[in-house]
Specification:
single chain; 637 residues; mainly alpha; 28 helices; 0% strand
Length: 637
């Protein structure tokens, strides 16, 4: 059976989620934690005012960094002293404490912004355990739904990753909704209308995420539609917003189309999707007319995609209509509709061109002009806002990006995203790139054949040319090794505490998605191994991912260097994420030496015993960081 997501890109429908908060106030420590999260998001943006000099900007960065660390430490303290002790006695907690916890969770993750989805999941996991213990059926259903929402938020970050690598996370999300939806058999005997709503919404949300085929997803949505259209269920709970539920489920169906003409869907599947697409589009047209808004773009595209699949439009016509929709973008608006048209539609446009490359030559010029528009729109997004939707759309485009001879390169496109949305990742990548290049240069001067496993390096006979080639290659490997972190921007750039175990596991996926993205573009193909293998261990005893086989990789010597420098910089500058105590440069080098022959190559750690080499590395860390901050300063000016 053909997989649904050949290029790893499908619209991720918004879940049926209508958390509106309650009338309960949070505890003071919960309010403080939320306030700190918002402050940390601003501090992490590395913004500045145009009147500052670079020296003043550096002072501000240092001040902000100290303040950020204080707030991170304070949030860790709040969790350890307040929240986690509450978890320990949760079975004896009072109803008001449970209500306050739910209010707290609602502030951590809502329909628009994500402040701390990991903690959101921890809270609902704890509440669910209590509800199971007390056999509170209504609470079990409600907590399963919200835990599913939290896990869906995590799964939405996995755009561009093969289902085989993330099936566990998809299953964990879907199991929450499936268990809550299973209470449908008790629908008649449940008195609480809100609980009935959670059951129905959970049933709809079982269709979220990736499936092995479009048909499998469509079957689930069709079953949901049958339930929602059942008059007996409607009669049993007339207070529920049945029309809204149906509309949202039709939206799910409309976004379920496979974007290639293969045997992935049956004729009946296509008819069903077409019906839903037109229902949703007509309703959106009516809403737009009533509100005097621009015509809907998202639903128009869904209709065009179905019409193309059915043969009512040629591919040429479909691409032309997508271009017209993209040309309607209001660059001054960051509404969901405009963000979709400005960033997500280009992703689908590229997906079609990837699948049908014969169309590319006719549209190269349009594509070359499109990328600067996308970046300009994204860069104008308000820095102090944390809208997860724009990150999702950027992940989509990062997955389907196509290089042309005269377009922006994929590497430059990724660095543009990092410098604006993940400045800490950008700085780290620049530091790793330049320090890796310096250390590789030192090694090459001592051992001219050290990197000759790399075919294009071995082919260079002139030493000066070879030296420059090694330097450039090492620089690019280091600069691009963390592009996969774009999928997990909030975790890497805005986390205000140590990661939970599940988050450690999820962030490991950045190596897989980074490798896949770099590997698909000609200009970055040779650097993909650095993205995949920089967390592997030299002796193979630990590290990840398992798909990186060091001895089989011709780039392993440079990947080893990237891994060492990456580890040093992470341990030096962001230890709290990884649960490490704060250490100075000398202590970190000693720890690296203790891992000689295990995590790090002895050929590299031997250089760390040379005081002149070590000083050169230290100075490069400092100068590269300053240069990267100057780039941030320039961009923000």
């Amino acid at each position: 059976m053909k997989k649904e997501r050949k290029f790893g890109l499908k619209e991720f429908p918004r879940p049926l989620n209508n958390y509106n908060g309650g009338n309960v106030s949070m505890q003071s420590y919960q309010e403080e934690y939320i306030a700190n999260l918002k402050d940390i998001a601003i501090l992490s943006s590395r913004g500045q005012t145009p009147v500052q000099s670079f020296a003043a900007y550096q002072e501000k960065l240092q001040h902000d960094r100290c303040l950020l660390k204080e707030k991170v430490n304070r949030n860790i303290e709040l969790l350890r002293n307040e929240l986690f002790p509450l978890f320990d006695r949760l079975f004896e907690a009072q109803p008001t404490e449970l209500a306050e916890l739910e209010e707290f969770a609602g502030a951590l993750l809502n329909g628009k912004n994500e402040l701390d989805s990991g903690l959101f999941c921890q809270i609902y996991q704890a509440l669910l355990s209590r509800a199971r213990h007390t056999k509170d059926r209504n609470a079990i259903i409600r907590y399963l739904y919200w835990l599913g929402i939290g896990r869906h938020n995590m799964c939405a970050k996995m755009v561009g990753i093969d289902l085989a690598d993330i099936e566990y996370y998809m299953s964990q999300m879907r199991l929450c909704f499936a268990e809550a939806a299973a209470y449908l058999k008790y629908f008649d005997e449940i008195d609480d209308v809100e609980t009935k709503g959670y059951i129905l919404r959970s049933r709809a949300n079982t269709a979220l995420g990736q499936f092995k085929s479009a048909s499998a997803k469509i079957r689930v949505i069709k079953q949901t539609l049958q339930i929602l259209q059942d008059k007996e269920y409607q009669k049993n709970a007339p207070e529920l917003p049945w029309d809204r539920y149906l509309y949202m489920t039709h939206q799910q169906m409309a976004s379920s189309i496979s974007y290639n003409r293969d045997n992935d869907m049956t004729a009946q599947d296509v008819v069903t999707i077409m019906e839903s697409a037109h229902i949703v589009h007509q309703q959106r047209i009516t809403e737009s007319l009533n509100k005097q808004e621009a015509p809907p773009i998202r639903t128009a595209f869904s209709c065009y995609a179905v019409e193309y699949y059915c043969g009512l439009l040629t591919l040429e016509e479909l691409l032309g209509r997508i271009e017209k929709l993209m040309n309607q973008v209001d660059t001054s608006s960051f509404s969901l509709e405009n963000m979709y048209a400005a960033i997500s539609l280009p992703a689908f446009y590229c997906q079609y061109l990837r699948e049908y490359p014969e169309q590319l030559s006719k549209r190269e010029k349009y594509l070359e002009n499109l990328y600067p528009k996308v970046l300009s729109y994204a860069e104008a997004f308000p820095k102090n806002e944390a809208n997860e939707q724009i990150f999702f759309y950027l992940r989509q485009l990062s997955t389907t990006f196509i290089e042309t001879p005269h377009s922006i390169s994929y590497g430059d496109f990724q660095q543009n995203i990092m410098i604006h949305f993940a400045p800490d990742v950008y700085v780290h990548s620049q530091v790793v790139g330049k320090t890796t290049a310096i250390l590789c240069d030192i090694i090459l001067l001592e051992e001219p054949n050290f990197f000759d496993d790399i075919e294009q390096i071995r082919a260079i006979t002139n030493f000066d040319a070879k030296r420059q080639a090694v330097y450039d290659f090492a620089m690019n490997c280091g600069v691009l090794h963390d592009v996969g972190k774009i999928n997990f921007i909030n975790l890497f750039s805005r986390t205000a505490r140590q990661w939970f175990d599940e988050e450690y596991e999820i962030t490991r996926l950045h190596t897989i998605v980074g490798h896949k993205r770099l590997d698909t573009c000609a200009s970055t193909h040779n650097y993909a191994a650095a993205a995949l293998g920089h967390h592997s261990w030299y002796d193979g005893s630990h590290g990840y991912p398992e798909t990186y086989k060091r001895l089989a990789c011709p780039y392993r010597q440079i990947v080893d260097v990237v891994g060492l420098i990456d580890w040093i910089d992470n341990t030096l500058n962001r230890p709290w994420l990884y649960g490490h105590p704060k250490k100075n440069f000398e202590e970190i080098i000693q720890e690296a030496l203790s891992l000689e022959g295990k995590r790090f190559s002895p050929l590299l750690t031997a250089r760390l015993r040379d005081s002149s080499v070590l000083e050169h590395i230290r100075q490069t860390f400092l100068s590269a960081r300053k240069e990267a901050y100057y780039q941030l300063y320039t961009v923000n000016s």
